[in-house]
Amino acid sequence: EDQVTQSPEALRLQEGESSSLNCSYTVSGLRGLFWYRQDPGKGPEFLFTLYSAGEEKEKERLKATLTKKESFLHITAPKPEDSATYLCAVQGVDSSYKLIFGSGTRLLVRP
Amino acid sequence: DTEVTQTPKHLVMGMTNKKSLKCEQHMGHRAMYWYKQKAKKPPELMFVYSYEKLSINESVPSRFSPECPNSSLLNLHLHALQPEDSALYLCASSQGRQETQYFGPGTRLLVL
Q: Residues B26-56: pLDDT tens digits?
């Protein structure tokens, strides 16, 4: 059964304190891994799609990487506006194109 | 442009009411989705439409009835809901079912 586990559940950082969020996955065959950012009461905002191990993508202070078992979302010198819940999801080749979501990491960046 | 719009933003309804949620996208996407999200939980898939045909129904109760009038619009008709149906309802779309899904802002539903 396809599964996604995100850690930590919650993370508090000081402004400028870099860190990484983890997304471990089990899937029969990976079609794609997706990172989203979600603010309270709003819809998830797309960040990155990764398709194969070794792939990396960057956007401003965020960088996503992918291995055969996990993905990391690296946040460099975060700002308070980076505070949000970060969701990881995978789509497997046998999943009828469904997204399997992790429970998310709630990030709080303090000034 | 990766915008998906949803109306209304907020909805309060009684258990005997009938209401509809609306979703629209103009990106030419051929797959559209309804998700339900409870507080501090990830989105749960409800329905998937592909080329305007229902392709996935995740065993959702019949009090939720989806409709896809055309390739740009997706509706969710609500009838005789229960208080436990209160949640954030999200619409998403993608170019195809294996492509990146883009979410709308959601409709916050409260059932009294």
A: 999 999 999 999 999 999 999 999 999 998 8
